[in-house]
Design goal:
Elements (H helix, E strand, L loop, with lengths): L8 E5 L11 H15 L3 E5 L15 E3 L5 H10 L5 E3 L4 H13 L2 H4 L3 E2 L4 H8 L1 H11 L6 E4 L2 H11 L3 E5 L9 E3 L2 H14 L5 E5 L5 E9 L5 E9 L12 E3 L6 H18 L4 E9 L7 E7 L4 H10 L3 H9 L26 E7 L20 E7 L2 H11 L17 H9 L5 H11 L3 H8 L3 H17 L9 H9 L4 H8 L3 H10 L5 E4 L13 E5 L13 E5 L10 H16 L3 E6 L14 E4 L4 H11 L3 E3 L4 H5 L2 H6 L9 H8 L1 H10 L7 E4 L2 H11 L3 E5 L9 E3 L2 H14 L5 E5 L5 E10 L3 E12 L9 E3 L6 H17 L3 E11 L2 E8 L5 H9 L3 H9 L16 E7 L20 E7 L5 H8 L8
Parallel strand pairs: 1-2, 1-4, 2-3, 4-5, 18-21, 19-20, 19-22, 20-21
Antiparallel strand pairs: 6-9, 7-8, 7-9, 10-11, 10-13, 11-12, 12-15, 13-14, 15-16, 17-18, 23-26, 24-25, 24-26, 27-28, 27-30, 28-29, 29-32, 30-31, 32-33
Helix pairs in contact: 1-11, 5-6, 7-8, 13-14, 14-16, 15-16, 16-17, 18-19, 20-30, 26-27
């Protein structure tokens, strides 16, 4: 066995807060790597500043340090743990690699005799330094675009004149395409070159000839010390070159590549990986292929680390790349490791897919009042979804159903755009909705050739969408009673939801459901097995389809379903995945078989061995209901998956499916702003004057009674969506009309806004009678900034005993009045020593992981057991915290350079970090406290 026995203790570097371009895929890879090393008896120490992750949990690593990702923090750890002998920096994205380089440059690794494993500095440098990369590719005979490095404005200008436009400017050592741009004209070149030079930490850019419109592909590779290489997955970008791969719709396996070109690409990728350095681990290689019969290939870049794409490839194939990469880093050869899914074949066996996966990014342009809503080289998506199907069409529809953008899938929901001019503008200037507008264009009868010339998306993909529209037209000729079975089956096999078919037939979703069940058209579940069923898989990881036998065997154990939180977006991030994973672990400990339903490929919850059974399916009513009918669980946990899961509570309740923990009635009462305020009134709990309205006229009348300023907020929304402070009648009318345009029929609450108030929030666990308050936090910013965008200090730092007593009393009263079973989060505004209630959420909140990390207590585990019937009094709470913990909001405004950076009631932060301070004299606290009013907007 070649395992390096000298490695006894490994330091893993995490990726820090979630930002656009670096999301929770590194929580997944870091967690998996840590578990993989500990299986080998190796001690693991982990550094990361993100409290919302599973990787920073005791269940994952031996020693966890929630510290800023700086060389000083690394040195502190190495002093505390002198037995650390290796560092693995490839599991924490660009942040970890950059930190590893910094530590190398200042001689830290050498000083403490630390070996770098999984990659070497030479490989990082050659792949990050655009010029070195280009020269190496030329040397080994791999074609690249004509390019030149520029370290100054003048150098860049000269080269641009030499090779002409269009050009690409790519800064060195940046993440998610930061600072990268296309330049079409000399006029825009100066500004974009300056931006690129500033974005690079070493003020260096690569300027290369743009291969706009070429097709883009990625290969995921693993290599061992013996120089064995496996290609885990080929991924084709549906969007051509010109859009960052993180913002592209991607498909695996590659669909439109000839076998000859694929073999050439494989050989190039292996040659590239072998040439960049002598290391064992994972690699992601990107290529552009000309969109003509010549299929010329050029190399775009190579990343010697796990990436967002490798998380996707892991979920797409069932092959746990990070887990195997960690084993290779400590010396194992691929042929000595077993395939984790089959347990019988070797890890040197390349995965084969007998299904198709489609990844669609999830954007949040609605949060950024920016004109820059088009997609390009700089990544702007905040999350992604993945659909698995037997065909591209089925996977595409399932991915669209997973997005949570108020669509029922791709088309067939009456929401299409019919303005030809607007459609063509969207096709030429890609944004988040271009896929839907391609559908609209074909439906409107715009010729495929015109759609192709506007998008340069391969005609194979366009014709697949054209086929779907032809099927819809055929279905539309029938009524439900007359619809032939083969047509209904075809629609289901192409991924159409019952409610899309109902739209085409002008009937109810429930009628389509009954009809297909009467006809025997029922979902079956197939296993993700890495080997196209050639060998038996041992891992219960499933997707649904409508053909063949059902491979998901139902056990006779008592079961609990946990609904996941779907794609990351602003207002609902990794913290809910953290809660879902802990919910699954707690339910397992309580003797239940656990079933996870989620569609986010970046997460730990969708790892093949987190729950007893994983259904990689949209968190969408029809899919969930069919799984519940198949598995017949004791109940469903909805309060851990954020608003995504919570929104399904009403239907579960209506269909008589047990909601584990707090009832739907209580969840609904807390969301209905009017009824909730009545509950406060009945319990003598102060709240701002309020009223609910459903038209702009009613709003104006009510404002006369309540008085300005007013906080206007819709019901059942996430991350403060649509919330705004208005100060006069004109603003009020305008905003109410705006909300009703986006959320027709929504009940809108108007609160008198308590300007100048202090904001605080509490999280608690309640069993219906007993309440334990896990933490009370005070916000540094005044009321008016969304709690997710505020610095929060735990425990509170300047609230009086009188105020704290009121917070305690109100929290206990509200938790019991709502008959809470599990977690509850309550937000307060404090003015003139009176504590007013802003809102209560009887579910897991963003702050629960933060409090759990700050106090070193497994609160989600306890809360889940309470949902399952335990009493709060069964647990021995022993919180530990010296000094204070601060939750730091992190923003991604740099991706939207011209956006207004003011903060208000609608959340804009993409992630968070935690900072521990010994006392309030701490420099960090004094700095942020002095700036508390800086960004407040109305």
């Amino acid at each position: 066995m070649p395992k390096d026995k000298s490695i006894k203790h490994v330091l893993i570097i995490g990726s820090g807060p979630i930002v656009i371009g670096q999301a929770c895929e590194f929580d997944y890879s870091g967690s998996q790597a840590s578990r993989s090393l500990r299986e080998e008896g190796i001690e693991v120490t982990l550094i990361n500043s993100n409290p919302a992750t599973i990787m920073t949990d005791k269940v994952v690593a031996d020693n966890v340090f929630l510290l800023p990702l700086e060389p000083e923090s690394i040195e502190d750890i190495l002093v505390k743990h002198p037995d650390i002998d290796a560092v693995l920096p490839t599991m924490g994205g660009q942040t970890a690699l950059n930190l590893a380089i910094k530590c190398d440059e200042i001689g830290l690794w050498e000083k403490y005799n630390i070996r770098m494993i999984g990659v070497d500095i030479a490989a990082i440098n050659v792949t990050e330094d655009r010029d070195e990369f280009k020269n190496l590719m030329i040397e080994i005979g791999v074609p690249v675009a004509p390019s030149k490095i520029a370290n100054s404005f003048l150098e860049g200008k000269n080269f641009a004149q030499e090779i002409g436009f269009p050009l690409v400017i790519r800064p060195s050592y940046t993440l998610g395409g930061t600072g990268a741009s296309f330049v079409h004209t000399a006029e825009e070149f100066d500004k974009l070159l300056t931006r690129g030079l500033h974005a690079s930490p070493i003020h260096e850019v690569l300027i290369d000839k743009a291969v706009l419109g070429w097709k883009e592909y990625e290969l995921e590779l693993l290599r061992d010390k013996n120089d064995n290489v496996v290609i885990i997955c080929s991924v084709e970008n549906m969007d051509p070159m010109g859009i960052h791969t993180g913002d592209s719709i991607t498909v695996a396996p590659a669909m439109t590549l000839s076998d000859t070109t694929f073999q050439k690409m494989r050989n190039m990728a292996i040659h590239m990986m072998r040439s960049i350095g002598d290391f064992a681990g994972g690699c992601n290689v990107q290529f552009a292929v000309s969109n003509d019969e010549k299929e010329d290939i050029i190399a775009i870049e190579i990343n010697p680390r796990v990436s967002r794409s490798s998380a996707l490839a892991s979920k797409a194939t069932g092959y746990p790349i990070a887990k195997i990469a960690a084993k290779l880093a400590i010396g194992y050869h691929l042929d000595e490791l077993s395939n984790q899914i089959t347990k019988t074949t070797s890890a040197l066996f390349e995965p084969t897919l007998d299904y198709v996966i489609v990844k669609i990014p999830r954007w949040n342009f609605d949060k950024f009042d920016s004109p820059e809503k088009t997609l390009g080289l700089q990544m702007k998506s905040v999350g992604e979804v993945m659909g698995i199907g037997r065909s591209f069409q089925e996977a595409l529809q399932k991915a669209c159903q997973s997005l949570e953008i108020k669509r029922n899938g791709l088309g067939a929901d009456g929401k299409e755009l019919r303005d030809q001019e607007k459609i063509m503008h969207s096709l030429k200037n890609p944004s988040w909705n271009r896929l839907f507008h391609i559908y609209d264009a074909i439906k409107l009868g715009i010729p495929l050739s015109r759609v192709y010339s506007a998008t340069l998306i391969d005609k194979w993909f366009l014709s697949q969408i054209e086929e779907m529209i032809a099927l819809e037209n055929k279905i539309g000729e029938y009524t439900l009673a007359e619809l032939p079975k083969d047509l209904l089956l075809e629609a289901k096999q192409k991924g159409y939801a019952d409610r899309q078919i109902a739209h085409l037939l002008k009937c109810l979703e429930s009628e389509v459901f009954s009809k297909r069940h009467d006809m025997g058209i029922k979902r079956v579940y197939k296993m993700v097995d890495t080997c196209a069923a050639e060998f038996e898989a041992k891992t219960p990881y499933y997707y649904s389809t409508f053909e063949g036998e059902n491979e998901s065997k139902v056990s006779d154990r008592k079961k609990i379903v946990v609904l996941g939180s779907g794609p990351n977006r602003i207002g609902q991030g990794i913290e809910f995945d953290y809660c879902c994973v802990h919910g699954v672990l707690a339910a397992k400990e309580s003797g239940y078989e656990t079933i996870m339903i989620n569609c986010n490929p970046e997460t730990v919850s969708t790892d093949f061995d987190t729950a007893d059974k994983l259904y990689f399916e949209p968190v969408f009513w029809e899919h969930i209901y069919d799984i519940i009918l198949h598995e017949n669980p004791e109940g469903v946990i909805v309060q851990l998956g954020g608003q995504t899961a919570l929104k399904l509570a009403e239907k579960l309740d209506r269909y008589g499916i047990k909601i584990v923990g707090t009832s739907y009635e209580a969840l609904d009462l807390a969301e209905d702003r009017g009824r909730f305020s009545d509950l406060l009134k009945d319990n003598d709990i102060p709240y701002p004057k309020y009223g609910s309205i459903s038209t702009a006229d009613e709003a104006v009348e009510l404002s006369k009674e309540i008085g300005f300023p007013l906080l206007v907020r819709p019901s059942y929304v996430l991350g403060g969506q649509g919330m705004k402070i208005v100060i006069n009648q004109e603003e009020l009318e305008q905003h109410v009309v705006e909300i009703l345009k986006d959320l027709p029929g929504n009940k809108i609450l108007l609160d008198h806004f308590l300007s100048g108030a202090i904001e605080a929030e509490a999280d608690a666990i309640c069993d219906g009678e007993n309440v334990y308050i896990i933490g009370v936090m005070e916000h540094i910013e005044p009321a008016g900034i969304h709690s997710g965008d505020s610095y929060a200090v735990l425990p509170t730092f300047d609230l009086s005993e009188n105020v704290l007593k009121q917070i305690d009393d109100h929290t206990r009263k509200i938790a019991v009045a709502l008959k809470t079973k599990g977690l509850i989060n309550i937000q307060f505004a404090i003015k003139d020593e009176v504590v007013y209630i802003i809102e209560a959420n009887p579910r897991a909140s963003r702050t629960v992981p933060f409090i759990s990390k700050a106090y070193d207590e497994p609160y989600v585990n306890y809360a889940t057991k309470v949902m399952l019937g335990a009493k709060v009094t069964d647990f021995n709470f022993t919180p530990k915290l010296d000094g204070y913990a601060i939750k730091i909001p992190v923003f991604s405004f740099d991706k939207f350079p011209n956006v207004n950076k003011e903060l208000g009631p609608e959340m804009k932060s993409t992630g968070e970090a935690i900072r521990f301070i010994p006392n309030l004299k701490d420099k960090f606290f004094r700095e942020i406290y002095s700036e508390r009013n800086l960004y407040l907007s109305k």
